[in-house]
Amino acid sequence: MTMKKIPHRIYLTEDQMPRQWYNLRADMKEQPDPMLNPATLKPATQEDLYPVFCKELARQEMDAATRYVDIPEEVQEFYHMYRPSPLCRAYNLEKALDTPAKIYYKFEGNNTSGSHKLNSAVAQAYYAKKEGLTGLTTETGAGQWGTALAEACAFFGLPLTVFMVKVSFEQKPFRKAVIQTFDGNVIASPSSSTEAGRKILAENPNTGGSLGCAISEAVEKAVSTPGCRYVLGSVLNQVLLHQSIIGLETKQAMELIDEYPDLIIGCAGGGSNLGGLIAPFMQDKLTGKANPRIIAVEPASCPSLTRGRYAYDFCDTARITPMARMYTLGSGFMPSPNHAGGLRYHGMSPILSKLYHDGFMEAVSVEQTRVFEAATFFAKQETILPAPESAHAIRTAIDEAKKCKETGEAKTILFGLTGTGYFDMTAYSSYLEGNMSDYIPTDEDLKPGFASLPDIPQNQR
Ligand SMILES: *Cc1c(COP(=O)(O)O)cnc(C)c1O
Fold first, then answer.
1. Which residues on adjacent β-strands are paired with residue 104?
2. Cα–Cα nearest to 285, from 321, 247, 249
């Protein structure tokens, strides 16, 4: 048999695309600790989740047993508009690094939201519409989640209100225009449309807002509007389930070219892209079929896995979701204002936290100037301008490929390229102009965040 050259981009056909999501919990012998109802401190029931999530999503959140979940036809149809995403062989990056390693990346930036977030936004909007909800609210920081949800809500005809932190609203007018194109109602936060916003404006009329404030407004609007829910784009079990499409496609595409990764690398904010990418490979690891190394990469300025506590905390800064046991810096943690690269979430997916705690994956933290150095280097070799978040994974993939050069090992490295960086050009400019610096919090800096952890018996162990 002659060895054909593996193409630069490997695509599945529509027929080959996965029709089911994969639920990693079904293969975990040790389960994540149960979510707690904050009022009773007892394990939360599915019914406890109904005020927060629509019924099917509450079911998915609690269901640790069903291994494969059918992707609804309508969601598959939507996926076909922008999926499968390509699995790319980074020939030019390999060459530039002069490494014997084979490097692959799964590119999720080929849709208008510019990131993997659309994979779950579509599912969440679909179930909300099917259940007869009449609106959704959310907040947006970097803007990818707000855009993804607006795309999905426009498709299913569901009104969406996005509370956008006022400084971003003013600094990123194009992001706002994209969301408005999809009929999203964008409100600068703090706003006079909610009690929480009016209170903050009364105290400080010139404030630029904050993510915490935008979340409070989005939550208030959702709970005070009949048929309306607030939705989250990461961390939750249901979001990891939807994002498993990334890993399932990747594994299938690698099978087509007779490859299997020795090393899988992903950036980690709340853990949704990483959880999705690794899902079927972690299944192999949990069932003893294969043993790839898995590395989560986080910013040194927001180090939840590498320096956080494994404790019960709220999944959202508004403290409305049940409490989950996860690696967290505390919902009161504030990343340094000089931190540019996203991934500023305080906690980490409870599923990934448990797998990390039990030694099934590793974590590293990287400083942002090294992240942008990797981003610009990668862009020049592979012609994709990566999102700063994604560049955390690129940084570690490059570091690992360099190690292969030293040892002469031809490892197969796979990483997740979660999105494009077009809306992050302020951060790129600051790097290119030499104005970016690194900031690593001291143990003292982390104390207020840990002090904000819920003071409950479960956290005293
Ligand atoms: C939101 C986002 C992330 C981080 O979120 P996870 O839930 O950790 O995946 C990473 N990359 C991009 C491009 C994003 O938009």
1. 89, 414
2. 247
CA of 444 to the centre of ligand 1 (A): 28
Q: Residue type at 339?
A: H
In the predicted model, residues of the chain with pLDDT beneath 70 are 1-3, 461
Note every long-range contact of 41-49, with CB atoms under 8 Å and residues 24 or more positions apart, other chains counting.
41/456, 41/457, 41/458, 44/322, 48/322, 49/322
Q: Cβ contacts of residue 114 below 8 Å, gap of 6+?
A: 144, 147, 387, 419, 420, 422, 423
| Phi, psi angle pair for 107, to nearest 5° | -100, 115
User: Closest Cα partner for 33 from 376, 335, 362, 310?
Assistant: 310
Span from the CA of 184 to the centroid of ligand 1 (angstroms): 21
Q: What are phi and psi of 445, to 5 degrees?
A: -60, -30
Is the pTM higher than 0.85? yes
CA of 343 to the centre of ligand 1 (A): 7
Helix, coil or strand: residue 78:
helix
Residues in the chain: 461
